[in-house]
Amino acid sequence: MFTGVARADRGGETVFAEARGMAHRAHGVPNTLGTRFALASGTKGFTAATVLSLIDSGLLTESTTVRSVLGGELPLVHPEVTVGHLLRHTSGIGDYCPDDEDPPPGQCLLASTSDYLAAMAGCPQDFPPGERFSYNNGGYVVLGAIAERVAGVAFPDLVRERVCEPAGMPDTAFLRSDDLPGNAATGYLEDGRTNVFEIPVLGHGDGGIYSTVADVHAFWRALPGGRIIEAPERMFTGEEYGMGLWLVPGGMALEGGDAGVNFRSVHLPERDVTYTVIANAGGVMAMSRHLAELVAAP
Description:
By secondary structure, the protein is α+β, with helices and mostly antiparallel strands. 28% of the residues lie in helices and 18% in strands. It has a single domain (4-296), classed as 3-Layer(aba) Sandwich (Beta-lactamase), CATH 3.40.710.
């Protein structure tokens, strides 16, 4: 029951590319290889790259503290929490939207940095910074707010300038879920309703960017080649998670899941393999396994 797009590249050639299902069911608009889909937490890779680009420009360091940039706006965040902690999910800050809980009330109304910071303000610290890894959506919201503040540029524009333009990703942007353009897919829940009341109206550092399968593959070509940040291996260092990326055998992955949004993209540099699946309903993991088997075949 896969509804979305899938693409696999090996050795610089596309060996599989297919679109299935509807981008908009009510209007009978089919998904195509050029359809723009929400990536949910796949956004975190772009956020990390944006922050590291600001570090390369001298506007931030990994040791920059949250408090030194945001002042008293998040009073419950430990004063020693740094940009490096946030990038690696070791900050210990409270999360406004934990993955193992239902979305907070009013999440669909979030549209600006001030909205997200207000949602974060009442979240107490969970553990001392640096103590352990704990995946945290709120941490990447804070990274986005810090990046916006030090650069003096709205976060969506900053991602475009620092990541999308140098990587050649013209169809990647933060789009309003209540005002999608005609080439963007609407997400659908299991009961057939759209996801407009289930996701923020406008995404931020932790998720919500829209992209195409071609743009995602452009990101994987640009990032390791140093076209976005210097020393890109910084993002790929760790055991299970680097910076904005999950580490998998032989490479790294971007992943995201939300109501009506499913995404997985794997890049294996030594094998020169990339495969991506984006869906506005379900079936991502089965299709991803199929692509993995396809690119592994002689």
